[in-house]
Amino acid sequence: MTLSELEDQVAKLPPEQFDQFRRWFHEFENRIWDHEIELDVASGKMDDLAEEAIAAHGVKLTKPL
């Protein structure tokens, strides 16, 4: 199936099925994002950002959420 064919099929979904597809796709996208973050953390790509955040918190530059 091509992207164009997939787009056509999604555009033809009834509203209820489109909502189900949208929720599924959102979760699918989140799983991909989470996996990418895990790989970045494991490879050390996030170390500098983490150190910066910890240092900022240490000198009270952060706020509670």
Key words describing this protein structure:
single chain; 65 residues; mainly alpha; elongated
Summarize the structure.
The chain has helices at 3-11, 15-43, 47-58. The protein is mainly alpha-helical and 65 residues long.
Question: How is this structure best described in words?
Answer:
This protein is mainly alpha-helical and 65 residues long. It has a domain at 39-65. 77% of the residues lie in helices and 0% in strands. It is built from 3 helices and no strands. It is elongated, with a radius of gyration of 20 Å. The mean pLDDT is 96.
Low-pLDDT ranges: none
Helix count? 3
**Average pLDDT for all residues:** 96
Number of strands: 0
Structural class: mainly alpha
Helix content: over 70%
Which radius of gyration do the C-alpha atoms yield?
Answer: 20 Å
β-strand percent reads under 5%
Multimeric state: single chain
Shape: elongated
Major sheet: none
| Helix and strand pattern | HHH
Report how far the terminal alpha carbons are from each other: 45 Å
Topology (SSEs and partners):
Elements lengths: L2 H9 L3 H29 L3 H12 L7
